Amino acid sequence: MSIVGTRVVRQEDRNLITAGGTYVDDLREEALSGAAHAVFVRSPVAHARIGSIDVSEAKAAPGVLGVFTAADLGLDPHAAGPVKEPWLAGEVVRYVGEPVALVLTEERYQLADAAELVDIDYDPLGAVASIDAALADETLLYPETGSNVMQVNGAQEFDDGIFADCDVVVTTTIVNQRVAPAPLEVRGASCAWGEDGRLTVWLSTQNAQIARTQLAMSLGVGEEKVRVIAPDVGGGFGAKIGADPEATVLGWAAREIGRPVRWVESRSENLTSMTHGRAQQNTVTVGGKRDGTVLAYRLDVIQDAGAYPRTLFLPTLTELMAVGVYRFPKVETRSRAVVTNTTPIAAYRGAGRPEATAALERAMDRFAGEIGVDPAEVRRVNFIRPEEFPYTTPTGASYDTGEYAAALDKALEAAGYAELRAEQKRRRDAGDPIELGLGIAAYVEITGGDSGGESGRVDVHPDGSVVAWTGSSPHGQGLGTSLAMLLSDQLGVPLDKITVRHGDTDEVPKAVGTFGSRSLQLGGSAIRQAADEVIAQARDLAADLLEASADDLELDAERGVWQVRGAPSSSVLSWAQVASAAEGKLTADVWFGGGKPTFPFGAHLAVVEVDTETGKVELRRIVAVDDAGPIVNPLTFRGQRHGGLGQGAAQALMEVVTYDEDGNPTTATLADYSFITAAELPDFELVDMATPTDRNLLGVKGIGEAATIGSTPAVHNAVVDALAGRGVKHLDMPTTPIRVWAALEAASKENAR
What we know:
Largest sheet: 7 strands, mixed
Helix content: 25-40%
Number of strands: 30
Number of helices: 19
Oligomer: single chain
Strand content: 15-25%
Strand order of the largest sheet: 3-7-1-14-11-12-13
Distance between the termini: 69 Å
């Protein structure tokens, strides 16, 4: 029986819950002996000119080893879209939390006192703290550009003629609010230069190899002069792709003072200075017939890029996935990216695709409400049909496979949709103050869409053990166990004899890493390919040892032995025997570059209750169908779905990063930034469905962020649906009691007119 597809407890967890993980701040490497401790002095204002920086008192403070500013670095600023971003701000600060100086001390406890002694004179400038303020162009973050709009993509002018044949046209603006990634492990790095002039950086990152390239380029050294090691990483969610600017400054500082440097940020620093996610305003227009057929769809995206437009691809991904699971005849998209005096935006849990789905699924509900057709039926009418795959959308996405109607039907059946609608009607007819809301979302996600490959290496040792190296970088997903399961199934080697290694650029020089839900479909395919090559080598060796033709040899993966085909009672060879004969050469190092993006999909139904007398929202149920193709480890798959569903619900109900009109963050601590907990979540009802793809060796699709993409609009739609009977048609996320009350009050005034 194959181990693939069975529930296997994650091998990574035993150490994590007993001895504990080894994160950057836990490292006690000999190379870090005598390391200085670092803290960044960050701007307390959103937009200002720097008049002067006086570091004299700080330098004289106890234990201070150095205080450095932009004038000391001598490093060219790095590109952030069409502008340049300094490593340390030297002339202008553009967001609260921007690093201005670096302080190094002998002991960590000395950092705070020394940092307070750095005297910086700020000459305030007008703050641009919202998308509307950015578009007004009254204050420019970069006067040389002439505008706060950093990028325009897609249609320059919209053609209203696409809606000419529509019976009904509905337009709505949806705010997909800014959120904080807030990983369990905040950012950290440790740097040490060797006597050979080589820099080693221990970094909390999703991509050691990408980080190495960035650090080498920014420090002006060859890649062979930089080694990056990612120890245990406590969550990334896209926000730890590569190396943040702080890592470059730390590497420079370690070289400058001639000793190692250690840094770990505080939680407040993380909330204000680590890149944020989402922050889009989407205006959607949907038009169609009264039978539910959509004829035209328009999506106009405005992306708040924050102070430095580091990742302008986010709104273009929103455009790419604009039509989701639907076959719309006419489609128009446009995106604009603007800069504001806020923390920069970057990839986070789906990176542009959740925003597309949230806008689309809200628009479909608005359209269904306008024509008086059940939202489930409107979706069914417009789904891309199974026989149409592979399907190229009007925005250029090439979908592999999909059973969108089947996914929705499974979710509705599991939830008892008809009975829920009947209960909703009963409450409304009775005037029950506790409204029942049902929210539907159908989604498709692009995974592995970076067009890159991945590395994989497999070694079989003379004792029969297996060591695999992957270019993918796990940081909580259980990837190590999944890869070990694949190898156990393929080679017939027990899990306890398989070790998976990753995250060290000396051990895995060429790799891409983890983001965009690419690890299993690309990293797993690379391991599969490497194992295939090892099997081919072993077959020839076993044939020589058994004095048989290689064509007659087979691997019995059930027992993990080599034997002559059709003669199981004949002599057999173990992997240890074959590897011993290989004299240390039973190894394969491959690059899997043949994978194409895959498109996992699903359908979610959320059930909420809203107390219209208090505004309280309670999430009662989430029923989720998430199709990621064949499942390697159902236990890991279930855990990933739980995480995605929880975060999606959190964004719909609670999470939001806010700023006041002067650009001051008002959610700089966990007392202000609301996380969801088990107390606010129901038991998730997960429905299985698996549609394979032919775009990688395993037939799998990514899943990491898919559940997030479906649950966010499902929960949000459920709240709005609960309030529909009270005249509420639109409600921005997060749907908190205060926002619910405001929506009810506005609807009441409108009805009174």
